[in-house]
Amino acid sequence: MAELYDAARPGYSDALVAEVLSYAALGDRAAVEVGAGTGKATVLFAAAGTPLVCIEPDPRMAEVLRRNTVNCPGVRLHVGAFEDWQPEQRGFGLVFAATSWHWTDPERRWGLVHDALAPGGAVALFWNPQGVHDTDLHAALADVDGRHGIAGAPHSELASSFGEVPGRWGGLPSGWPEDECRRDGRFTDFRAVRYRQDQYYDTDHYLGYLASLSRYRVLPSGRREQALAETAQVLNAHGGGISMALFSDLFLSRGR
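The chain above was modelled as a monomer; its predicted structure follows.
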């Protein structure tokens, strides 16, 4: 689903990237991206002139990433798992992960980050949870999801349920990393920032987005197609799309 992922998934805020780079104060040091995917975040950091080592375990995603960064000479790509990556030397100024940190090994990830960073180097972890504005549409989509056993879809929460605190995503499990990072003991200067913008998807775009998600991919093909068809009927009955609040929640810390 690499091509669909690249076409349908939302990107990240320019303000978020600026915040990360201001916090990291890289100077001439490079950054490491964990789970770069097709480059949704990569291209923004590369456009800011950041030298990057991008780690991506899936060769199909990596191929799209390579295409998306063909004009970015400062980007180097390592195809493989973060847990298997061997940095040439410790000295990176930033390690970041865009909606990918939850796929890494919790027993090893903080040690791997610490080993890659220069003293005082920065960590930036961020996600893009979303919430639906229209309560009637939210309820109608919940009926579809319930019939097909789908949990945690992007439309499963109302925008009003998110509040103001980064890492609190309504009823969704966020996996917010601050507690785990504090327990590790090798990091300090914890910060959390939230950005918010409105995002509108027409029906076709939103169906492509859903089809790229693992919770839909694991369904038997017949059930998946039926769930998407019923979702399309609901969206078309509510104006032909869905208006959502797109949150970009950012966690920052620094190696001691």
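The longest helix spans residues 221-237.
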